[in-house]
Amino acid sequence: MVKEAVSRQRPAASPIGVLALQGAFREHRQMLETLGAAVREVRLPADLAGLSGLILPGGESTTMARLMDDSALWEPVRDFHAAGGALWGTCAGAILLAREVEGAPPQFGGRQRSLGLIDLTVRRNAFGRQVDSFEVPLSVRGLAAPFPAVFIRAPAFSRVGEGAEVLASHAGIPVLARQGRVLASAFHPELTADSRLHRLFLELVGEGVPVS
Amino acid sequence: MPELTLARGPVFFYPAPMTQTPQTGTPALKEGFAEMFKGGVIMDVVTPEQARIAEAAGATAVMALERVPADIRKDGGVARMSDPRLIKEIMAAVTIPVMAKVRIGHVMEARILEAIGVDFIDESEVLTPADDQFHILKSDFRVPFVCGAKNLGEALRRVGEGASMIRTKGEAGTGNVVEAVRHARTVLGEIRALQARPAEELMTVARDLQAPYHLVQYVHAHGKLPVVNFAAGGVATPADAALMMHLGLDGVFVGSGIFKSSDPERRARAIVQAVTHWQNPALLAEISEDLGAPMTGINIDSLIPEDRLAGRGW
Prior knowledge:
Mean pLDDT of chain A: 92
Structural class of chain B: alpha/beta
Oligomer: heterodimer
Structural class of chain A: alpha/beta
Mean pLDDT of chain B: 92
Radius of gyration of chain B: 19 Å
Radius of gyration of chain A: 16 Å
Order of helices and strands of chain A: HEHEEHHEHEEEEEEEEH
Largest sheet of chain A: 7 strands, mixed
Largest sheet of chain B: 8 strands, parallel
Order of helices and strands of chain B: EHEHEHHEHEEHEHHHEHEHHH
Distance between the termini of chain A: 29 Å
């Protein structure tokens, strides 16, 4: 039933991209494929051609930012968004999507490059180190039952701009937000067997105009 | 097949009802954290300054230690856990995860590292073993562990004890990738051989591998280890790193290979890129250009058996 719904929304000819510079991109790929989507791994600007959506996975945000520099991906990803592409960042991916990043390495002058495609300030490692990582059932706006949220050295949204809508908070701190076709989560839906947020993203993709 | 009994590894099943209180230190969190290192490079560093260079170059984590394996090998004597102060200084210097090593079987070194909040512990054959028969019961800890393995049985024994990540042992501090290749081919080859066996033979396979039966069943069903599997022990060039990715590993540790080379910053950046773009030889050629001299390296055949670190671990 899910598969049918997805294929109605989005023609199979228009694949979803998963940024595959570093991190847990394989898990996103597997989840999307389970839902019937065609998936392409993105490492270079040319890989973006013809995609309708792009997931930026969890991993290490400083590593991905460095590799975005090396592959000159910043502007092509912004162009992809401007042309109607939908984006979803999980954990490190949410950091890459944010307007501002707090907690950047001091040696970077406290600044970390980001795409600025969702009006959030994201604070890195907001919940502490790995020994503080946690999992918790999270109430998400629009989902009937709580979502099993896995927070691993997770960031949090310390400022949510007017254009962005908070879809979930943990302990009063926003951890899932949406602005138009852009979704950002501080936790890792790809590490669970729960595909509801991936389905939500495919719905966002369906609303956008596929990039030619 | 009762899939839930095999539910170990990167996909987690949540038994209902979930408790409302946040849970810490669960296998899902420890193994899930290891998943985040994939496609990345974990670099040995001995000072906060080296840690900053590694972070700026794109390391996904650093391994904080007093001496890189090449120097441990040269200096001889007993190699132990590093001074907690040095590890804390390195933790304060960077925003990426920090790992540190304990001796095989040294439960208290591990408790000390857990107490200072290290993100990952390497129970490592590079240090002098503290126990010649038993490894740490890693499932007892909130902090995740990585362990070395030369073959599938050893890898599954470590996972059985609670390791959240496996790496090849290779031969640390040599700058010679041959042992890492041997261990990767052995583990991955044994996985392929195991997959070809019918289910009724798995108990005997488990006996022969000296591995826990339920983990043998997992590998049979999934064709992979239940946890992330990295390369380590001898990676010195971007091509070495790409080779380990080609063999089917998830990422690489680089120990002496970066800061024993003539231009650590450039080499570190190049190895980070090589792990991402390993399927693109034209790009690898660009990445590999003009990096200065790699670490000198040691021919493994010239090492007397007592100097081989990979034999440690049981």
